[in-house]
Amino acid sequence: MTTETNDNKTPSVLKAAWLIAVVTIVSKLIGFVRDIIIANYYGATLVSDAYYYAYQIPSLSLILLGGVGGPFHSATVAIFSKLIPNLNEKPTEEVNRLYSTFMNATIIFFLILSAIIFLFPKQIMGLIISGGSAEMINLASAHLKIMTPLLVIGGIVGIYYGILIIYRQFMLPNLSPIIMSLAIIGIVIAAPNDQKGYALAWATTIGAILQLIIQYPNIRKLGYRLKPCFEFNSNPHFREICELLFPAVLSSTVGQIHIYVDMFFTSSISEGAWTAIGYANRVFQFPVGILVTAFLVPLFPIFARLVADKDYDGIKNYFNKGVGVLFFGAIPIIIGILVVGLDAVRLVFERGAFDATATFMVTEALWFLSVSIIPYVFRDSITRVYYSFNDSATPFIVAFSSIVLKVLLNWIFISKMHFGIGGITLSTSLVTLFNACVLGILITKKMKMDYKSLFINLLKMIFSGIITFGVCFICASVINKFVTLPTIIFEIVKISLIAIICLGVYIPLNLLFKMEYANELFNRLCARFIKK
């Protein structure tokens, strides 16, 4: 009976997951437009550096802790879902008291933290960007003071997200980040030129407030009311929340520590370096984030179900197919970045204050970052398997242990070898590879994975990719030499031609080498085409 019920639920779970993935893609597209607008008005300059340095602290609360999948959202879902048997009824007094206690504790904690940051912004930014100029530290401090409300908002929004998702209101939490992007776009464009220096910080704060405002009516409609309830010691469910929240917060902050390490070393490179790394990460996340989200969102509930059923062969099968398809899509992305990455960055960003120097800085960072795509998709995929086993401790320990490696690699590449901006993203790629390898090895303590077939197929993809890269590189050189067009048209034509050539060479080579996933995708496409 249980199996039948799960089978009946699987299509609805997958439908919801794909819906979330589509919304995420839309969010990334609008976020990408936001980045283009910021690049146009600010380029890679002192002002943009100051904003991005300052934003790292409030973003810890708003995105990492309070975002969808963050600790506050996860803890809310884990505890409150057990106390709400009927989603069609209003919450009980017990649930509302827990809600009020959790909200009050969150608000008090983040208000204290906000007050400290608001009173000592120069000391905090001076510690993070110790290699920066006095002007940089002062400007970043001013931005940080403006954005301190984000700390409180992040925790509250995270609880709101959790409540809404318990009641199966998936759209609003996932659409919410779009509000901030639209606020930044509108305010940056509308701000007078003499006030654009702080427009980004104000736009970010206003966008966060709007995120909070659009969630509140639905929370109130569900029957949740914030009251002066402070059962911090007497409420056993609140203690459960704290027990879940503390290790989850530690896990989320590890990635932020990596960013602070990068900020420390980047501040000694050159003006605009941190902005360039930020743009490189955004360009990187645009195709890779969409690829990973589209496949891992529907796969995650499948992994969890298979673990519950102890169907380990099923996990191996879905893991290899899912990761295999991700690998298959990742290699053309790497080729594209290496061959026409400079053209793409120039086409998208190079206008207004974003000049040729900024374009090369972003592209240099992007080149070194591109090699992390393969370990990146493997790490994110294997992490979902750990979570399916209710194990978030192992990914945290592995990520935490890599902090020392990150510091060491940055010191070698930046301080000793003077690699410049590329050294930061190269160290990121190597740390990603380390995390992927260690997680891939440690999962064998839970179950034996079938890596042999996965990596045999990967070798076939890499071999096909090397040949494809050579062909694309030669074609790009020919286009550069013989095609003469206005700059924008030239970039569009070149990128389009290289994309067509890349897929036209890469896919047939994989079919020729009998790469399993290419054959399967090809057969499915042929079957659909024949049916039509």
Spans where pLDDT lies below 50 across 5 or more residues: 1-14
What is the end-to-end distance?
38 Å
List the quaternary state of the chains.
Answer: single chain
The number of distinct β-strands equals: 0
Helical segment tally?
19
Mean pLDDT: 82
Encode the helix/strand succession as letters. Answer: HHHHHHHHHHHHHHHHHHH
Which structural class best describes the helix and strand composition?
mainly alpha
Strand content: under 5%
Radius of gyration: 24 Å
Q: What is the percent of helical residues?
A: over 70%
CA-based shape: globular
Largest sheet: none
Describe the structure.
It is a single chain. With 532 residues, this protein is mainly alpha-helical. It has a domain at 46-256. Helices cover 83% and strands 0% of the residues. It is built from 19 helices and no strands. It has helices spanning 2-42, 46-65, 71-83, 93-119, 121-128, 134-146, 149-166, 171-190, 199-222, 236-266, 273-308, 312-349, 356-370, 373-388, 393-416, 421-442, 451-482, 487-512, 516-531. Helix 11 (273-308) packs antiparallel against helix 12 (312-349). The longest helix has 41 residues, at 2-42.
Notable traits:
single chain; 532 residues; mainly alpha; 19 helices; 0% strand; globular; disordered N terminus
